[in-house]
Amino acid sequence: MSTSVGRPTPRAAATLAARVAAGESPLGRARRVGRILRALAVAYPDAHCELDFRTPLDLAVATILSAQCTDERVNQVTPGLFAAYPTAADYAGADRTELEERIRPTGFYRNKTNSLIGLGSAVVEKFGGELPNRLEDLVTLPGIGRKTANVILGNAFGIPGITVDTHFGRLVRRWGWTSEEDPVKVEHEIGELVPKRDWTIVSHYVIFHGRRVCHARKPACGACTLASDCPAFGTGPTDPAEAAKLVKGVERPHLLELAGLGDLAGDGR
Predict the structure, then answer these.
(1) Within 10 Å of residue 196's Cβ, how many Cβ atoms?
(2) Residues 173 and 237 in one domain
(3) Which residue in the list 58, 112, 147, 229 is annotated as catalytic?
(4) Residues 43 and 105 occupy one common structural domain
(5) Annotated catalytic residue 147
(6) pTM of the predicted model as reported, rounded to 2 decimal places
């Protein structure tokens, strides 16, 4: 039983945590994963890639720029960048100083400039100027690892891919979906739990939740609609009023309403 919408009693939370730690049955985990996914779909019906782009190349560039930088800052830089460099050949032939200045606000701009020029050159030389749509090809390109490749495949080409970024890895471990730390192992294990057709949207759901509710240092446990299925419940404040202040984003009123805390939507940010 729960004390309120989505918030388990201390005893129920401890029982779930112990069950998961002891080795949850495959059926029990599958059912719990299914409930969490359904709740995430209700919480984030508009979940999407938060990097703005028009073409696969644009998304590759934006994802490279997003390293150690917020999507919001990247989206401020990319409109002018995409207009100035619409093709791989444009990046390959870019003036280094000019390109560095354009992307300076995203941080680590010298390394990112190396990646963008290298990316453009490799796409021109190896793929005729068109970004490839195969994982094994994408990961050969400068600045593109497996995570970035899956972002591109899922969002620019419509090919299902699981994006294991810091938010995704942290949450699926907190939820007891996996105990793996290696991103590739996480990707494969979660891929076995989630239907392939849903890999891309599930990545968005999890990343959205990590940015808005399940924060790294202080998750909003007491305002989380997944709490009754989360073995890490109590990592953050369980008091509803305190937790509600930690919920972020334009979805905040909706998320608090789902948690039965609509009257607290005016508090916090």
Answers:
(1) 12
(2) yes
(3) 147
(4) no
(5) yes
(6) 0.89
